[in-house]
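TL;DR need C-alpha cells for one chain.
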Amino acid sequence: MPTNQDQKIFAIFMEEAAERLETLQTGLTELPAIMADSDRERVTAIYRAAHSIKGAAAMLMDKMPSLTSINKVSKRLEDCFKMVKDTPLKIDATTQNLYTKGFEVLKNLIDRAASPAGLSEELGEKILQASLPVYDKLENHLKGLMSGAATPATPAPAAGSPAVPGAVNQVMTVLKPMLQGFKQAESPESRKQLAGLCARLTKVGAGIEPWQTLVKTAHSAIANPKNSFKVLANPIINELKQGAELLQAGKANTISPSPTLSTLAGGKAAAKPAAQEITISADPKEVVKVLLKTFNKQQLQAIAQLLIKHIKS
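>> reply
TL;DR here they are.
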C-alpha cells in the first residue's frame, strides 16, 4: 500500500500537473494566433508547461513507475513546442489537429493516474506506444512548414467524401447533453444514457465510414466501465466536435480516432502497482534518516521542492 507520504507527494504532483494542463489547453484554443505572434512569450509558456510536467514526473518515476509514460509523452509534446518556440509560424488545420491529439494523450494519462483505478506502468506504456505516430507526424509536419516544403493551405475535399451540410449543428445538439452527462455521478444508468446519445450520431453521417468508425470507437469507450467519466469527457467531446467540422467541410476521409480514444475503447485499466511502505517518526531528525535511507538523490530533490512549495502556499 502507498504510504501517506507517497500519497501527499503524488497529490502535489497531480495538482501541479492539472495547472500545467490548463495552460496547455488554453494555449491550444488560441494556437494559430499564438504561433504566428512575433512575441514568443505565450508559446514559450506552453512549452514550459509541458517541460514542467516532464521534469516533475522524471524526479518521481523511480518511486512511482506509473509516471514513466507521463514523463515520456510530455517530453515528446515539449519537443514539438521547442521546435517553434523561437520562430513565428503560420500553422494549418493539420498542425492544430496533431497538437490537440498530442495533448489529449498526455491529459488521458494524467486523468487515469488521478482516477481511483490508477495508471499502471503497463497500461501507460501501451498508451505511449500507440501515440508515438502522432508525435512523429507532428514533428515531420512542423519541419515541412518551417522549411517551406509544406504550406498551410486548405486541401480540396477528398474524392468520395461529400460535405454534410449542418453536421456541426447536428453533432453539437448531441454533444451538449453528453457534456452534462459526463458531469453526473457515474452509474450503469448514466453510462447507458451517454452511450445512447453517442449512438444517435451515427445518423449524422450515414454511410460515411470514417465518421462511423469514430462514433463507434467513442461508443465503445463510453461503454467500457473501466473508463471514468472524467477520463472520457475531454477526448470524446473534442474528437467528435473536430470530426463533425471535417464532415461538414467534405474532409471525412481525414477523420480517424486518436490513439487515446482507441485505447479507451479497447484498453483495460489496471490497479496501481504496490509501493514500498515506510514508517516515519514524529522526530524531524529520524524523518531525515528515513528519507536518506529510502530515496535516491533525485527523489530527495523532488521532495524538497514539493515541500517548499507546499509550505509557501
